[in-house]
Amino acid sequence: MRSSGTPKRILVAGAAGFGGAITCALVHRHPGLELAAATARSDAGARLDEVYPHHRVPVVLEELDLDRHADGIDAAVVAYPHGASAPVVAGLRERGVPVVDFSADFRLRDLQTYERWYVPHVAPQLLEEAVYGLPELYRDELRGAGLIANPGCFPTAALLALAPVARAGLVADVVIDAKTGVSGAGRGASWRTHFSRVDENVDAYGIDGHRHLPEIQQELGVLGATAPVTFIPHLLPLDQGELVSCYVTTSRPVTQADVDELFATAYDAEPFVEVVATSPGVRDVRDTNYARLTARADERTGKVLVFCAIDNVYKGAASQAVQNLNLALGLPETAGLR
Ligand SMILES: NC(=O)C1=CN([C@@H]2O[C@H](COP(=O)(O)OP(=O)(O)OC[C@H]3O[C@@H](n4cnc5c(N)ncnc54)[C@H](OP(=O)(O)O)[C@@H]3O)[C@@H](O)[C@H]2O)C=CC1
Ligand SMILES: CC(=O)N[C@@H](CCC(=O)OP(=O)(O)O)C(=O)O
């Protein structure tokens, strides 16, 4: 770690992926950070602005060499898929490097739950030190953290929508109806995300259980809500953007004034959560670190309805990682993000 006045040097591993590339762009333009190196496999040797011209980051992608790349850096972002991330994160932690991990490898505190939904864990010894990287819930723990598990995109939106009502002990049952663009699936093409299948189409997926369900349940549990959760994502013909519509059956009657007070108390001081009166849309938050939400007490049904829009690759991944880096490295939380 170097002196506090100089820019903090950041390694981005997995820089040729959607999330990694945006992280490089955010770090490149950040007043307090410097892109020390960006690594990739298939695109190694190419410049990032050849792979993604619109990000305009003229850095040459290199093959990851942990000994070389971990030397002289202040932190790393690992933007790999789950399973591939854990060994690299472990290697960086062994070398004393603070890490923000994009994958699910360190999000679930219970090893058995992780292995039930994902793959056998190769670095379970690090689970205990990992901090769940949702700054609105874990700000104090994120300051100076060594390992940050950046949340999934759906859990980010759903937890921001539900935290005020969960904390108030109001959740008796909740349905989370989520919509996402295809960039959430990463840069690898598949039939599921093929233009010819997605264009002019909408469908639900993960209806027998999506891997973000245990993550949402874990964090709602920390907030005191252990009620049944139904979570169903839908794929839309969008590139970036995510909207979660949450239908909460409440444990006691609530008025709109109650709901307004809960959300104002939770978010009035939050730099990246906008509580608005009108229905938020994904365009309202595109390419930003903002979560934009509205909450209603529905007098006809007695439910609380909360709608939250984020950009899945920004607040759902890359810009949230930078918010977390800012906290971990002692920089202003909003630096490089507005
Ligand atoms: N896209 C999104 O909206 C969100 C993504 N995430 C998470 O962020 C991570 C990255 O996602 P995203 O950027 O979308 O994914 P991409 O598929 O676009 O990028 C992942 C990158 O990881 C690299 N990679 C894949 N497997 C390995 C491996 N075994 N070893 C080393 N590198 C590997 C690939 O590198 P190469 O191209 O060089 O082969 C690829 O560029 C994932 O964990 C994802 O779940 C989280 C929230 C939202
Ligand atoms: C469209 C699409 O496939 N979206 C992804 C979102 C993944 C994500 O963003 O989160 P993780 O970091 O947990 O992978 C999905 O539903 O799995």
Automatic annotation (TrEMBL):
Its EC number is 1.2.1.38. Residues 9-145 form the Semialdehyde dehydrogenase NAD-binding domain. PROSITE patterns: ARGC (PS01224). Pathway: Amino-acid biosynthesis; L-arginine biosynthesis; N(2)-acetyl-L-ornithine from L-glutamate: step 3/4. GO terms for biological process: L-arginine biosynthetic process. GO terms for cellular component: cytoplasm. Transmembrane segments: none annotated. The keyword Translocase does not apply. Pfam families: Semialdhyde_dh, Semialdhyde_dhC_1. Its main location: cytoplasm. It catalyses: N-acetyl-L-glutamate 5-semialdehyde + phosphate + NADP(+) = N-acetyl-L-glutamyl 5-phosphate + NADPH + H(+). GO terms for molecular function: N-acetyl-gamma-glutamyl-phosphate reductase activity; NAD binding; NADP+ binding. Keywords: Amino-acid biosynthesis, Arginine biosynthesis, Cytoplasm, NADP, Oxidoreductase. InterPro entries: AGPR, AGPR_AS, AGPR_dimerisation_dom, AGPR_type-1, NAD(P)-bd_dom_sf, Semialdehyde_DH_NAD-bd. Belongs to the NAGSA dehydrogenase family. Type 1 subfamily. Catalyzes the NADPH-dependent reduction of N-acetyl-5-glutamyl phosphate to yield N-acetyl-L-glutamate 5-semialdehyde. This is N-acetyl-gamma-glutamyl-phosphate reductase. The lineage of its organism: Bacteria, Bacillati, Actinomycetota, Thermoleophilia, Solirubrobacterales.
